[in-house]
Design brief:
The complex is a heterodimer of chains A (718) and B (305). Chain A has 718 residues and is of the alpha/beta class. Chain A contains 13 helices and 37 strands. Classes of the chains: A alpha/beta (718), B alpha/beta (305).
Amino acid sequence: MNLNFISPAYLLGILGIGLPILVHLLTRRRQTRIKFSAVYLLLQSKKRSIRRSKPNRLLLLLFRCLAIVCLSLALASPIFSLGPADEFLPPVPSANVFIIDDSYSMGKQAENKTLYAEALLTLAGTLKNISPESSFSLVAASAPARVLLDWVNDRETLLNKIKSSKPSYRTTDIGPAVAEAQKLLEAASQQAKRIFILTDRDKNGWDAKHFPKQAGDSIAVKVMDFSGRQEGRNRAAVTRVTVTQEFLTNSRIVRVKAGVANLLPKKSLRGVPLTLWVNGKKEREISLALPPSSVVDKEFSFPLPGHEAVEGFVAIADDALAADNRRYFTYQPDRKINVLVVDGDPNTVAHQSETFYLERALNPFYGSLSDIEPTISTLDELFNRNLRLYSVIMLCNVRELPIEYELELEEFVVRGGALFVSVGDKVDAKFYNEKMGNLLPVNFESLNRAARRDEPFHFLMEPSEHPVLKLFKGRIRKEMDGIRFFSLYKVSPRTGRTPGIPMRFKNGWPAVVESSFGKGKTILFVSSIDRDWNEFPIQPTFLPWIQRWVKYSARSLGSISQQDLLVGQSFALGEEMDAGGAYFLETLGGRVRLVEKKAGTHGFPPSYRPGVYRVYRSSAAYAAAPQSPREEIVRLPVDAEKIGGFTVNVDTRESNAEKISREEIRKILGAFGSVTTTDFVTQKSGTGMDAKGTPLTTPFLLLMALALFWEGWQVRRE
Amino acid sequence: MPNAVKSVYDPDILAKTASLSIRARHLVEGYLSGQHKSRHKGSSVEFAEYKDYTPGDEIKHIDWKLVGKTDKYHVKQFEQSTNLKCTILLDASGSMAYTSPLRTSQGMTKMEYAQTLVAALAYIVLHQFDGVGLLTFNDRIVNHIPPRYKPSHFQHIVHGLETLEPRGTTRIGSVINKIIESLPGRSMIILISDLLAPKDNLYKDLKLMRSRGLEIILFHLLHPDELDLPFEGDIVFESLEDDPDIGADPADIRKAYQKIVRGQVDSYKKTFPSLGVDYVFLETSTPLDQALNYYLLRRKSLHKG
């Protein structure tokens, strides 16, 4: 017969009985004795009196003390059980693997502690009951599962290990942890082998595919469930955040769109505060209504006058699980777009060059205002250009590319670069048709010239929702409508390709052909980009038209430096970004680590804490101090330049409160000799788990209520 | 009655007089002088007839003037009505010793009041040439002073009262049974008691006494505390007789107690007259002249009868 207390500290509350005793002593009335003649009449009066005599004050005191004792006992969460303390722990030396679920769902609150802290306390208590000469090992059950402590015989080592541990921000993955435990136990010499799984039974961590299919009967498994200990429910989570900016309109408005999920299956949530924090300041706060089991998207917008990167997060009010109530984002507005313009018809007279008008249109004020940085190059200079430094390559009236250079261009576009092709009298259509098949989804059929100077070709300017063209309307569209084109190539789609045709001429021929290849885009303009074949470059609409196409096509490159990672994932720098030098990662709290280069690439370590991380590059080769390991904290070099940032957020699969049932656990762990489950429930009995003891919290609370009721009734009568 | 005279009977004032005999005389003289002319010249000395002297008659009763005229010896005979014998039965049980613990309650205690009443009655009876005796009792007879006519007998009565120590329980019935045979026929019984005992056969015993021709005046004496239960707080009541102690808050039982006590008094007021017993309820705060008044009225009616 056992009576255990989950929170024995509350037993100190029993000392509180001193208070009513003190009050009793202080308020005790002195009893006087009077010699009286008609005592027998008093006796009769007492019997007849409707107003009964005052309650026995000692009895009142007794009930008050009883109420306090009951309250203390109830708070201490007593568990009463018949039989031995734990049949799972026979008094023989054994090999014991403790699998501790350190996923972030174990950070839920249980009284004043987290479930994880409760689990550690239980683990420490279990250790005391394990017979001497046993050995212990500790495995973490968050993804990826890992052995935290190999076999030790010293309990203190294990205790010290768990004392310093905290719940992680990872998801639960019990299966691989069990597999690790099995491996450990196979190497153990003891006959008795046990696995203790301390978890909150989150269903997402119990994927049957990850569990060992075969295990010896000698291994017993005990699942210690702490889910019943949690206070409150994980009601909501921020599941996604996206940041956008109207980059085509030069708007300074940044839009942050957050998705908030109601995790409760049947209950609507009203008045959920959703706050937007930008660069450490609260920018906006709104209130949300969330229908049951749904995700509601809410968009914030705020002006961003500068060009600096913004970092922030979207948060909801804390519930039982705080880890999923915040989601980080980072955004680099108006990135500088480096454009490599290849002039296929250069001329010593500047205005006769193919790219004369284009260069001025891309950067009319020589870099002072425009976000586009054009670099003019001739065909011969192409080999000297590092394409990784450019977002967009524009081939202007290029006859043909150097041998196999089209392959480099393909690789550039596949990685996310943009290729803009304009034609002219130098263009060898045959070359483009034969070699540029992957990049250009159309064939050049014929060069067409206007029959007469006064019968030119014209754009067919119809209302369009295309991101580039949607702003061209009204008077501007009318102006574009009148632009005269005298020569152009007629193109037709290649077999099996369905290119986008955002602009056509009035005769129905495509004017602009758009297609995607890999992560990048290709844009083909079927006329010249100078005045040889048309009057477009000298029209006012040319500048916004070409700038918007460049920005539009370069947009896909933005995602490279804005990766939203989940906890445990690694930042991938990518070859296109790897411009040599040393890379540094500024982690949370401002600590800087040098990123070690492995196998020719910079391998960023997995990030296990949610937050915003910054990446810096130093062009100079960095030599770490010889005595310090490469990944230790270092000082950021003076010339280090911030090249971007990325965010790490929790995987909200763990937020789901769905629990796996006892039957399913037994089924999944069927390969093991015996599986027992222990429910550390005090408030919620009868959850279907094997309760090893009867929780006495409710009976004590009822007894306390009875005592208080009786006491109150008596005092009221008085 | 003038206030100055009234104050003479006030128990609070009488209590200041230490001597019981002086207190009684003071009370009775004051009462009689204010009430009517003395009964000294009353019927008890009125001439009835002559009879021939026979040896054994008192020589002092021979009418010598008539002897001179007739030369025959004649003896004067007087009215026999003055020969009333009055026995005062005083309850001397423990309950009569009740003394109020309240500071507000001053004046006579219940026993002092009873003693004063007995002494005054004895004094007034003797002044009327009646015989008076005193019998004190609790559950048995404590002291018995037989009735005498001599004025000096008053001192015996007073002495008996002064040496009285109330104790024990009240058993009126058993006492009546013991004395009823020795009481002279057609005499008067004045019973003074608080009647704080179970009634048992009280009515029956008094009825028996009445059937033997005894005139009974019952002075029911209670202290105001015993009527109102004016105490406050948590109190343990110790019995002055043999009842067990009882702890109670008087506030809880006051109403019920008052109802019982007044109910008893009301019951006595109805029942005793029907038995031929003159019932007089007296609080110790009641002026004593009321009791004397009642006695004299009763005595007068007896004389006429």
